Amino acid sequence: MTIRESLEQWEKEYLSPYASLSINSRGRAKPEPQCDIRPVFQRDRDRIIHCKAFRRLKDKTQVFLTPEGDHYRTRLTHTLEVSQTARTIAKALKMNEDLVEAIALGHDLGHTPFGHAGERALNRVCPLGFEHSEQSVRTVDRLEKNGRGLNLTFEVRDGILNHQTIGKPHTLEGQIVRLSDKIAYIHHDMDDAVRGGILRESDVPKEIREVLGSSPGDRLDHFIHDIVTASMDRNEIRMSAPVAEAMTKIRQFMFDRVYTNPKAKSEEAKAEVLMETLYKHYLKHVDDLPEEFINLLSEGEPRERVVCDYVGAMSDRFAIAVYEEIYIPKSWQI
Fold it and tell me: Is the model's pTM score more than 0.70?
């Protein structure tokens, strides 16, 4: 028996009857030999961590563009916090932790620079539309490894695609990540907003604090405990009714006070113009695209989609550098 087979046997004996077993995976689009050490979901997790799109997350905005300080979240630290919350819930419920971690680490691989401002800009100018969860799947299916993709399992791809509020993941592990994403961004965005002087803890409505707690740490702990308690021995990942209602209220509070706050979002209009300008430039000058994207065009991919692939994959810093290279006049060189 290989190490992988012994781990698959452990999953059968230990995990919840509602968990997704590695051995029962619906598999990959392109069949390939099994690893002798790692079950399929662990292998997917490793592929995501080692891919270029994952490394770029460190220089992509979460909520606050160009904040002054070292402790504001980026898209990478958001991803890690989603993963940690999801793994805690999965372990408590005896779900497949490898699957949860793979989905969590991959869920935002297709996110644009400049957060949702970049996403809005590309969705507005591209006639094919742009949606980051779909782009995350396209990233792992098509864009990584010079067009070969990562060839991930169905379950991981499904969880990535369905991680947003409107999504309906096929696995309970995907459902865990879907809730953990919301919990993470509410937790850290409020923490960052307080650090940035946009909010005070006392601004959180009393009715929310009475249910969830009076600090970011208290609320995170309460959310996790509530999900574990409400979901134990069920074929569903859920919150209790009072906590679900408080979640809705605190999300609305964050949209009203932070996500549309002029102080927090003062630079977003500039970011949107930058993204639209880069998109239009490469649409007219496709020969300026890197070779791997030109290869996609030669394989019949629509020009608009390939330009979105390139511009949407940029980090904040690289997008600004490319914009300056193209549009900002340079001093004469001696």
Answer: yes
Question: CA 281 to CA 248: how far, in whole Å?
Answer: 40
| Cβ density class 98-129: b for 16+ within 10 Å, e for less | bbbbbbbbbbbbbbbbbbbbbbbbbbebbeee
Measured distance CA(315)–CA(321) in Å, rounded: 10
Structure tokens at 295: 């290869």
Residue 22 and residue 39: Cα distance in Å, rounded?
6
Alpha carbon distance 128, 25 (integer Å): 32
Domains detected in the chain: 40-259 (1.10.3210.10)
Contact 72, 130 (CB under 8 A): no
Beta bridge partners of 61: 74
Per-residue pLDDT of the chain (334 residues; tens, 9 = 90+): 999 999 999 999 999 999 999 999 999 999 999 999 999 999 999 999 999 999 999 999 887 666 666 677 889 999 999 999 999 999 999 999 999 999 999 999 999 999 999 999 999 999 999 999 999 999 999 999 999 999 999 999 999 999 998 889 999 999 999 999 999 999 888 888 888 888 898 899 999 999 999 888 899 999 999 999 999 999 999 999 999 999 999 999 998 888 887 776 678 899 999 999 999 999 999 999 999 999 999 999 999 999 999 999 999 999 999 999 999 887 755 4
Q: In whole angstroms, give the CA distance from residue 232 to residue 238.
A: 9
Cα gap 131→165, rounded to integer Å:
13
